[in-house]
Specification:
288 residues; alpha/beta; Chemotaxis Receptor Methyltransferase Cher, domain 1; Rossmann fold; 7-stranded mixed beta sheet; 10 strands; 42% helix; binds S-adenosylmethionine
Length: 288
Amino acid sequence: MTQILNRNLTERQFNFTEKDFERIRKLIYDHAGISLNPAKKDMVYSRLVRRIRELGLDSFQVYLGLLEKGDAAEWELFVNSLTTNLTSFFREEHHFPILSEHINERRTRTPINIWCSASSTGEEPYSIAMTMVELYGSFQPPVKIYASDVDTNVLAKAREGIYTTDRLEKMPQHKVRRFFKKGMGENQGKVRVRKELRDMIEFVHVNLLDESWPLNGKFDAIFCRNVMIYFDKPTQYSILKKFVPLLKEDGLMFAGHSESFLHAADLFKLRRKTVYELSDQQRKAYHK
Ligand SMILES: C[S@@+](CC[C@H](N)C(=O)[O-])C[C@H]1O[C@@H](n2cnc3c(N)ncnc32)[C@H](O)[C@@H]1O
């Protein structure tokens, strides 16, 4: 068995040198902040080799040359190939009652704005939308959700809101019945998120690394979960700094289970497990 696996890894159709891998690491780091560790070499080969075949190129060098010339469409596909999009409905479940309580205490404010800043295939923003519908007891709560990602493929999937039923296995049946429509015929085995939930969300392409983001206004809550782990600390800090002016004075920042913003203590302070609020210093700045 080991022998077979080793042969598959080493017998590659295209030569893939350490230098090629280093070039790719630099390109994706500079463009999207993603730090690929050396163990990802095989993953990178298998994800990009498809594109080299589709383009009918004969080497990684030619492909990388094409990217370095700045072909925008190719860049989009390159980034889409190298992101990791693992997500699920109500992932890190304990955050949703905290969000609900936070918004409930501010329900006289309208509208409520929430940003899900690495929304992947949509399970996270739809979980936020379901939480808001449950809180307000209405399919038209005064809540606007912005969901963004750098990967245009996952954004398109999120916008569609179609999932295979196995994605809902852990969700209580009453939620499934309330928030999803079952597919029939050729869509057997699939569900679609109800239109009212899709209408609550605006999907936008945002690269968190960009100097400026196409979002303005202040948010009552920002979800930035399980994306910071791909960035190094200086990159994380500069992103967190850009979140500060977009958060309301009493807004909440939600982080992923293995992420910590404690290295940015001048910007955020921990309120509850992986939930942050503006530091005292930043809050004071609101009153200047
Ligand atoms: C592991 S998923 C996490 C999804 C979701 N937030 C969750 O916790 O389930 C990470 C997402 O971050 C996105 N991402 C990676 N780099 C990004 C960047 N520079 N700007 C915006 N999104 C990025 C990826 O495309 C991917 O969809």
